[in-house]
């Protein structure tokens, strides 16, 4: 017997797997899996998209040739029960497949949407920490802020920077880059 949710089916009582994710509809929502639990996010808004695009461009302009900057939707599939789609990620060339990233990226970035703040700050941050993602950035496009977490010697995230508006963050990981939150909104920053 299966439980029906829209046009796809899940077996009751068991965790959801990446096989179930592949059966999800292409309906504009983002489907992610953390330890067998499904998280669904609606399509992001204008400020989110602008910040995601501008950050990806800024990173890509200074990205070393052995690394790549990619944007969602692009899967980080850590296991059969965990598949995440960071808004922006940086990965080693040798780690990428044609379809997904089967290991932790060097950098994962989440841009807040009203519906994603709690998930980004709790579930996803914990999942990225367990995966060993060296740097995790969260950007609030409403407050124009960037908060940076990096793994410490114990493998636990520590906040290493928090900047707002016109303040600059001079990143060293995964490579040197200067990020100013206000600049990520371009002409939308009024």
Automatic annotation (TrEMBL):
Domain Putative restriction endonuclease: 19-176
Presence of keyword DNA-binding: no
Signal sequence bounds: none
Alphabetized InterPro entries for the sequence: Nuclease_put_TT1808 (IPR012296), Restrct_endonuc-II-like (IPR011335), Uma2 (IPR008538)
Protein name: Uma2 family endonuclease
Entry annotated with the keyword Hydrolase: yes
CDD domains registered for this protein in UniProt: DUF820-like
GO molecular function, one term: endonuclease activity
SUPFAM superfamilies the UniProt entry points to: Restriction endonuclease-like (SSF52980)
Superkingdom classification of source: Bacteria
Organism: Actinophytocola gossypii
UniProt keyword list: Endonuclease, Hydrolase, Nuclease
């Amino acid at each position: 017997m299966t439980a029906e949710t829209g046009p796809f089916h899940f077996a009751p009582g068991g965790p959801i797997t990446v096989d179930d994710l592949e059966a999800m509809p292409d309906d504009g929502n983002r489907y992610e899996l953390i330890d067998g639990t499904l998280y669904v996010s609606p399509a992001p808004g204008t400020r989110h998209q602008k910040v995601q695009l501008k950050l990806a461009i800024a990173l890509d302009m200074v990205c070393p040739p052995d690394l790549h900057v990619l944007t969602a939707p692009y899967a980080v599939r850590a296991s059969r029960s965990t598949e995440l789609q960071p808004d922006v990620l940086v990965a080693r060339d040798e780690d990428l497949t044609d379809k997904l990233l089967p290991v932790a990226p060097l950098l994962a970035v989440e841009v807040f949407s009203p519906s994603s703040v709690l998930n980004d700050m709790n579930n996803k941050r914990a999942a990225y920490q367990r995966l060993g993602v060296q740097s995790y950035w969260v950007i609030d496009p409403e407050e124009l802020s960037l908060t940076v977490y990096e793994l410490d010697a114990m493998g636990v995230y520590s906040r290493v920077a928090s900047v707002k508006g016109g303040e600059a963050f001079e990143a060293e990981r995964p490579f040197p880059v200067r990020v100013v939150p206000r600049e990520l909104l371009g002409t939308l920053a009024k």
